[in-house]
Amino acid sequence: MQKEKRMLEWPTLAISFTTPSALPDPNAKPEWEDTSWIENSRDPDQARTEVSQVKEALCKIDELKDKLGDNSIIHFSNDVRDLNEQARLQFWQALQQVFPRTEGNISLYRHLELTGLFAEKISRSLGRLMHDIVAYKTAGNVHDIGRLTGIHRYHTHDLIGQAMLQRLNMPRSVTDHIPTPELNIGNIDSATLASHGEEECLVAANTYAEKLLSRITKEEIIILMSDFVGKPSKKSLASIITWPWAVAHHRATRGSAEDYAKYIREEALWPSEIYAHDHLHFFADGWLMIYRSIRNHWKHFKNVDLDLVRKEILSEEKSKIIE
Fold it and tell me: In 10 A of CB 30, how many CB atoms?
């Protein structure tokens, strides 16, 4: 069932955002079940390894379901009013037992934790009710769950995460808050922007931002922003990156339109991943316009200052350590 797309609280231009006509068959078997594509992939050995990683993760999800029992968050209905902090905490602790913290994923777990904390505080400041705040925090904790497989490539780990949450029967009151992997798929080819002038690219980024803003739900916005700022510092997991560092990280990991087309697309392995990148406009400056627009809107009209939220989280964590 598709999410209801609610318009944002600030005006956006009525620009249509068309998706490609030849979308993959939604009823087809997932790529870790139908593996006929592997031998023709750019790296069959890596493909087989990743399929094994996904299958192992899905087995762990089954283990997690057994561990959680009958009164856990996954047995709640899709009604957000059923959620509570005790159920979220039980799930968060069980997740780390099934997917233990390691040197390889400790930074990821910190990111999931911080995204949940930012989502909790932002949703509370925006006046959400307590059960809805728990849903946002839970969504922040699991928005990148696909990366626990050890696979970290945009779109692919999102699709795997979707499958893991579906296997887990995570209620829609949580999953509807998480941006979908298809959000970026549209009708603008980022590779063609590489030869454009700075002014043309700025216009393209602004157009892209307007189109995306018309597709993002209010629920997804909170997780998008929490994901953007909820990252640990490279120097210390106990710290949190500042806004300028979040912007720098975004640009460094996405690069220019030319970089994206040349390098990130070349890393694509799975058929769904190749399809997505062939139709993807992941324009870094367009996304930055969205992040800045939302940040400024919250600060000036909603009394939500992300810099202050960051300081509040750090202060609370420091107090806990002292206690």
Answer: 15
**Per-residue pLDDT tens digits for 80-123:** 667 889 889 999 999 999 999 999 999 999 999 999 999 999 99
Residue 117 contacts residue 140 (beta carbons within 8 Å): yes
- Radius of gyration over every alpha carbon of the chain, rounded to an integer in angstroms: 20
Do residues 140 and 226 touch, judged by C-beta distance below 8 A? yes
Q: Rounded CA gap, 221 and 179, in Å?
A: 8
**CA-CA distance, 126 to 302, in Å (whole number)?**
7
List 185's β-bridge partners, or say none. Answer: 280
Q: Which residue has the tokens 């905490």?
A: 89
Cα gap 134→126, rounded to integer Å: 14
Phi and psi torsions of 240, nearest 5°: -130, 135
Q: What pairs with residue 280 in β-bridges? A: 185
End-to-end distance of the chain based on CA atoms, in angstroms? 46
With contact defined as beta carbons under 8 Å apart, do 127 and 230 qualify? no
Please name which of 218, 290, 300 lies closest in space to residue 9, comparing C-alpha atoms: 218
Does residue 9 register a pLDDT over 50? Answer: no
For residue 9, give the amino acid letter. Answer: E
Residue 134, CA distances (Å) to 154, 173, 178, 240 in order: 26, 10, 13, 22
The whole-model pTM stands at: 0.85
| CA pair distance 36, 93, nearest whole angstrom | 37
